[in-house]
Amino acid sequence: MIRLIFLLIPFLLFGSPLKVIDLKENNGIVSIIFNKNIKSESFKKSKINTGIYYDIVSEYTLTKKTFRLKNKNFITIAQNNKTTTRIVVQSKKIDSLNFKINKNILLLSFEVQKQSNQNKQTQNDIANLFDSVDDKKLAQASNQTKPKNEQKQEETIVLARDNSNRVVVLDPGHGGKDCGAQAGKICEKTITLAIGKLIKKTLESRGYKVYMTRDSDSYISLTDRTKFANNKEADIFVSIHANSLPKTSKSYSVTNGIETYFLSSARSERARKVAEIENKDDIEVMNYFSKLSFLNSINSQRLLASNKLAIDVQHGMLVNARKLYSKTTDGGVREGPFWVLVGALMPSILVEVGYISHKSDLEKLQKKNYQERLAIGIADGIDNYFLKNF
Ligand SMILES: [Zn+2]
Questions:
Q1: Which pLDDT does position 39 carry in this prediction?
Q2: What one-character DSSP code corresponds to residue 97?
Q3: pTM of the model
Q4: Residues with CB under 5 A from ligand 1 (ion)
Q5: Which CATH number fits domain 167-389: 3.40.50.620, 3.90.226.10, 3.60.60.10, 3.40.630.40?
């Protein structure tokens, strides 16, 4: 019986009529979600005085909805007749409309004036609307984020989208007089800066606005790092570090892998130890009471967002690191009382890209291709975080 049901499910899905099942608007991008995959050919486009509309043979199960976007752009979705859903797009600059299909989702948005090279390219791609929709390219882009052996686990898809008003502050840990963790002549500060620069490059190529707390070997106090992020009105703050165990530790030569932390007052033994090392720089200058009030100021919404960001970034790093080293250890997402994250007013995380106290981690972390993989992984994580939460 169960087997029969399983056999029927694909048939039922395939045979069911096309329906609009949900609508969303995030940051100027309107998503029209269907119950199954759609094709650009299914949309019939017509011009009107104030813009254009698209008709598609599908049921519309929701109430009529108008999205009022910036620059007096309107997108209205409603049932036109029994068999047709109509999407009306009203705009003075209808040429700036982005029309993208990804599987069962139609994404509509308007190009903003201020744009990166990537966005300009997207705009060119879309100038002819339907003719330019390139499902293959999108599929390719989404496949690039999937590891060969983890395709089934990957739930989210990285899309070409407008990130020009998303501000990311990257914070390469330590610098200047502060070497961070040390292994022989190699300082943590050098590795974090190299990776930070690569993340910046990757995110900028995806249209993000990116600032770095330092882009040279200079010393910056922990509090100035978050102040910088607050001044830039960053949407997220990512502090980059490499882990290390004290030589006296029993697991010194064994412990390795990637971890991501988000700020909380939780104090697991492990988080406490890592935080102790990363906090060392400024901890003396903060008196007990200011620490206490800082911890009390942790806002639960920001904590939740930081946790989500941490999960996405950790996943992105692991998936990418494993493309080069399939046995990369997943140290997981953890909470900890990191001062560098305390003053940040936005979701913020601290990544530990590996253990420089571990021989092969240290070797990998100095390789450009591995650093690039980590940068792509962190950027993928950031992409997915914004895709899911905004
Ligand atoms: Zn560090």
A1: 92
A2: E
A3: 0.58
A4: 173, 180, 241, 278
A5: 3.40.630.40
